[in-house]
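Morning run. Coffee first, then this:
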Amino acid sequence: MSRQGLVELEAVLAIATRGSFRAAALELGLSTTALSNLIGKVERQLGVRLFNRTTRSVSLTDAGRTFVAQVTPALRDIQDAMAAVRSQQDTPSGTLRINAFATGAREILVPLVIAFLRRHPQVHVDLVTEGRIVDIVAEGFDLGIRTADLVPSDMIAIPLGAPRSFVAVATPAYLAANGRPRVPPDLLGHQCIRIRLPNGAPYRWHFEKDGNPVQIEVGGPITLDEATLARIAVLDGIGIGFFMEADVREDIAAGRLERVLGDWMPPTAPLCLYYPGRKNPSAAFRAFIEMGRALGRAATRAE
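And here it is:
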C-alpha cells in the first residue's frame, strides 16, 4: 500500500458498504473517476482484483471479501484512535507531563496543578520533581517549571508570580538560647542545617546587601537534600535553616519560626512555566497554559 493507505482502505470499505462506486464517491467527496482510479491502483499493488464490476453492478471478489473482513476491524480502531485524539482539541483530556524542581512544584501544586485538575477532571498530570536541569523535549515532557534565569533561551516562558526570595529562619527558642546573627559571617558560630546539592556538593548560603554578595558555607549537625526534611529539623530546634520563603511562610506567620538576616535577602528570579513552541497543541495543554498565565496575572496585580 502507498503512504496514502488510509484513504485507499477507506475507499475499499466505502464501496463494499455502499455497493456502488457512485454512492461511495459521494460519501468520500471524490469523483467516480478518481475513485475508480484509486481502486485500480490498490488492486495493482495487491496483485488481485477486489471487485467484480460491470456497468450496472459491483460486488466483492473472494479475495475482496477476505481483504475487507480482515481490514475492517483494524481501520475502525485507527478511526476511533484518530477521533479520540481530535476530541482532545475540544475537551481537555489525556496526560500532561511536567518537570519541576521540588520547591517550584510545591509552590504551584495547589494554585495551578490542583486547581487545573478540579476544572478539568479528564486530564491526568504527571509531575516529576528533580534538582537537575532537564531537557524537557528530549525527555518527553510537555512543560517545565524553573526560575526565569534557568529557562532555556529557545523556550516560551510564562512568569507565574512575583520575584521570589530566600529566607533564613530558626525557632524563637533557638534564637533565645543562642542569639540572633546580625551579619552572614555570624552564621559560622551557629548550628545550621547544611544543604546538599543534586551533584553532592554542599550548598553555600547566598546573601546580598547594598550590592555586596556574600556566600557562607555553614556548619552544623546535619546535612539534608530535601527542604521538607530541613523544615522538620529547624522546627525541632536543631538550628538555623535556609529556605525559599514560600516553604516556611505559614510557619513564620504562625510564629513557629522567625526570620534572621532579612535585610540580606534580595529578591530572586520569578518562577516560570515554560514549553517549546508547538503546532496543534491539545486542549489540555492550551488550558494549562491559560491557567498559568492567569495565575501570573493575578500575582502581578497582588504586588
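The first helix runs from residue 5 to 18. Good start to the day.
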